[in-house]
Amino acid sequence: MTASALYIPPKPLSLWSVVALARVLWKGDGNLLELLPAAAYHFDVGNLGYSRRSTVLFNHPDAVREIMRDADGVFPKSDLMVNALEHLIGDSIFVTDGERWKRQRAMIDPAFSHMRISHAFAAMQAAVNDHLVTLKERAASGDVFSLDLTMSHLTADIICRTVFSTPLQSGVAVDVFEDFTLFERSAVQVDVLRLIVKPAWSDTPQPPEVLAACERIRHHLGELVDSHLNEPDRYDDIASSVIAARDQETGVPFSREELIDQLGVFFLAGHETTASALTWAFYILAAQPHWLARLREEIDRVAGDAPITFELTRQLPLVKAFFKETLRLYPPITFMPRVALRETTVAGRRLRRGALVMIAPWTLQRHSKWWSDPHAFQPERFLPENESALTPGAYIPFGQGPHTCVGAGFAQTESVLILAELVRHFDWLLSPGQAVRPAARMTTRPANQIMLHVAHRAP
Ligand code: HEM
Question: pTM (2 decimals)?
Answer without folding.
Answer: 0.93
